[in-house]
Amino acid sequence: MGPVSADLAAPSARRTFLAAALRRPGRIGAVYPSSPHLAGVLASVVPSQGTPTVVELGPGTGSVSAVIAGRLPAGSRHLAVELDPSMAAFLRRTRPGLEVVAGDAKELTTLLADRAAHRVDAVISGLPWSLFDEGGQREILGQVGVAIGAEGAFTTFAYTHTLPMRGARSFRRLLGDRFDEVLISRTVWRNVPPAYIYVCRRPKG
Ligand SMILES: C[S@@+](CC[C@H](N)C(=O)[O-])C[C@H]1O[C@@H](n2cnc3c(N)ncnc32)[C@H](O)[C@@H]1O
Q1: Are the C-beta atoms of 137 and 144 separated by less than 8 Å?
Q2: Domain boundaries along the sequence of the chain
């Protein structure tokens, strides 16, 4: 899989993202796609050797997908589970190397089994966790844990300004309940708004 420029589809990506965000704010949870700086930290767990399988949740218009694709060696698999039909259609048009799965991250186990993706090296999430209730968060995190197993890694991000909020604190606790290792990055200031990343490994049984 060759490198894909993050700016390849930038103006139409921004238009598609903004249109979806205005149409369904309760699903998208952001007005701007992630910056290449944030994407770089999220994608840092993607193996750059071998033929890994990587799964993205909530890829939107592909700002993080582009950076992941740039790291992946030839012969790798890169699946992207996107709930919003307009985003999924946009990804199919603009990212030919991506296996776009129009579906719900809450069905992750089934979606992966249907595509014979049995061993996943990394899951990278752009999901708007604050828009899910705790049951929904648990459901997805449990399936992410099954997907990555003992060897894989999971990254996701949150906006820095939400840190003191109750929802952000309870999500952080939930990550600690579900994963043996949870690392938190420095703030990525070059993103709108600034954000930080969780890197999680070794799901608890
Ligand atoms: C905050 S945007 C992030 C987009 C992109 N990853 C980025 O960082 O620019 C959240 C994305 O998650 C998608 N999404 C929301 N709920 C989802 C679900 N249950 N399953 C899959 N995708 C979902 C939205 O449609 C949207 O594309």
Answers
A1: no
A2: 10-203
Q: Which CATH number fits domain 10-203: 3.40.50.2000, 3.40.50.150, 3.40.470.10, 3.30.70.270?
A: 3.40.50.150
Our answer on whether the CB atom of 82 is closer than 6 Å to any ligand 1 atom is yes
Would the pTM of this model clear 0.85, i.e. be above it?
Answer: yes
DSSP annotation of 186:
P
Identify the helix (H) or strand (E) that includes residue 149. Answer: none
Strand 195-203 with 179-184, pairing:
antiparallel
> Quick check: CB of 106 below 6 Å from ligand 1?
yes
Q: Return the ligand 1 atom nearest residue 125 CA.
A: 6
**119 CA to middle of ligand 1, Å?**
23
H helix or E strand, kind and range, residue 95: none
Sign of CA dihedral 145, 143, 197, 86: positive
Tell me, using a 6 A CB cutoff, whether residue 30 lines ligand 1: yes
Q: Is the dihedral of CA 139, 87, 131, 160 positive or negative?
A: positive
pLDDT tens digits for the chain (205 residues)? 433 444 545 878 888 888 888 888 888 888 889 999 999 999 999 999 999 999 999 999 999 999 999 999 999 999 999 999 999 999 999 999 999 999 999 999 999 999 999 989 999 999 999 999 999 999 999 999 999 999 999 999 999 999 889 999 999 999 999 999 999 999 999 999 999 999 999 999 8
Q: How far is the CA of 126 from the centre of ligand 1 (A)?
A: 5
